[in-house]
Amino acid sequence: MTHKGRIIFHVDMNSFYASVEQAHNPSLKGKPIAIAGNPKERRGILVTCSYEARALGIYTTMTVHEALRKCPELLLLPPDFQKYREASKQMFTILRSYTDLVEPVSIDEGYMDVTELSKERHALNIAQEIQDQIHAELDLPCSIGIAPNKFLAKTASDMKKPMGITVLRIRDIEQILWPLEVVTMHGIGTSTAKKLNAHSIFTIGDLAKAEEYTIKQILGKNGVRLRARANGEDSRMVDPDAIFDTKSVGNSTTLPEDVVDIRILHKTIDGLCQKVAERLDAKRLAGSTVSIQIRDADWHNHTRSKTVSNAIYRFEEIYQVACELFDKHWDEAPVRLLGVTVSNVVDRKDFSQQLSIFNFEEHIKDEPIIKIVDEIEARFGKGIIKRGVDMGKRSSYQSQTSFSKDFLDDHE
User: Fold this and answer.
1) Phi and psi of 130, rounded to 5°?
2) Which of 4, 164, 229, 286 could anchor a disulfide with 313, C-beta 3.0 to 4.6 Å?
3) pLDDT digits (tens, 9 = 90+) for 156-203
4) Pairing state between β 248-259 and 165-167
């Protein structure tokens, strides 16, 4: 496999949570199992399921009720977050034994830049060895995509599951990718696909060959990036530190029943904003954009955002903006899910507050502490002081069905 450019791997663990359960309890192997957040309530949605379950028509995000009706023999298991987190840590330890250029993307997937390593060994052999080692040591299956960039590597890893190894070269995309529906392309969801379809862009090839100006008019800057990737272009580097660049902090919840009572909805938003504020505080972050997500009883998603002049992080500020957005855009249809997100986040020490006579006194009290921290870091090194987190309170705001952010602690 001769090459002149980069060689990127995308390692994607197959049906990760279910596979970890089967590895810990071999009696579950070969059986249809699923991990559900809360099997006793309607909010019980399948987080993932084994390939045996998928073969019977079960899929992720299906409700527990629907899954059991379709597959009565389905074995439901509650999530064991610590177990999955430990397996993830072990998996990334194996990846880093091959190269330092490993970029975790989530708890069960990551990129590797093996360009230098591939000068000594064939990339396919390296991928096979990694897959075999993960399976032998952790009893977990994974798929690996091999390509000259991140986008194609990610696309390749999805092509053969479980336990697949797929090579995708730029010269192959016209034959392999372009005939596919545009909605199948990584980075394009149903909503974006509908916008493209409305302009007669139905396949990845249509997107690749469309005029850049046209795509920009439809989707803005993101459309330009998607068009480039449809042509196999992606210059993003594998950055081991990228995982720590938090871009947003959010929280959402599925309601036990469809709700139209404004008091209950405001109370739910209150709780979501409390959790977001606690997470921002734990990470010493602030953000300038607040977004709300509303999913109605027909599973239609509506997202609205507002950008404020000064970055915010306090509960009261987030709640005020979130409620304003909700009250302005809710059409009184029954609500199934609510979400609140603060994005465009920055370190609180780095953002510049546009101080006025009205907020000067509120922020001036933080100045002595920041000054002391700066002096200590100047003497002993940046990052020597970290804000303490009350470990006893962490569970009060961490999601009970997802901890994609929490596993980042294992990579420090």
Assistant:
1) -65, -45
2) 286
3) 999 999 999 999 999 999 999 999 999 999 999 888 999 999 999 999
4) unpaired
Spatial separation of the C-alpha atoms in residues 90 and 108, rounded to whole Å? 11
First-residue to last-residue Cα distance in the chain? 35
* Token pair listed for 321: 């903006």
Written as six digits, the tokens of 387 are 């804000």
- Please give the single-letter amino acid code of residue 324: E
Tokens describing residue 351:
């953002």
Whole-prediction pTM? 0.70
C-alpha distance from residue 68 to each of 52, 56, 257, 378 (Å): 14, 11, 19, 59
Q: Are strands 285-296 and 335-347 parallel, antiparallel or unpaired?
A: antiparallel
Q: Are 114 and 9 in contact (CB under 8 A)?
A: yes
CA angle 130, 132, 135 (to 5 degrees): 110
CA 169 centroid distance within chain: 26
Query: What is the residue type of 158?
Result: D
Alpha carbon 322 to its chain centroid, in Å, reads 22
Q: Where are the alpha helices (DSSP H) in 345-393?
A: 360-364, 367-380
Is there a cis peptide before residue 148, judged by omega within 30 degrees of 0? no
Using 50, 70 and 90 to split pLDDT, how confident is the model at 385? low
CA–CA dist 389, 384 (Å, integer): 15
The per-residue pLDDT for range 51-65, each reduced to its tens digit, is: 999 999 999 888 888
Burial class of 175 by CB neighbour count within 10 A (0 to 12, 13 to 18, 19+): exposed
Q: What angle do CA 90, 60, 175 make, to 5 degrees?
A: 85
The alpha carbon of residue 289 and the mean position of all alpha carbons in its chain are separated, in whole angstroms, by 19
Give CA–CA dist 341/289, Å, rounded.
8
pLDDT tens track for 27-84:
999 999 999 876 565 557 888 999 999 999 999 888 888 999 999 999 999 999 899 9
3-state secondary structure of 63: strand
Helices then strands, counting H and E runs in the chain, come out as: 15, 12
Residues labelled catalytic:
109
Tokens 């009720």 -> residue: 65
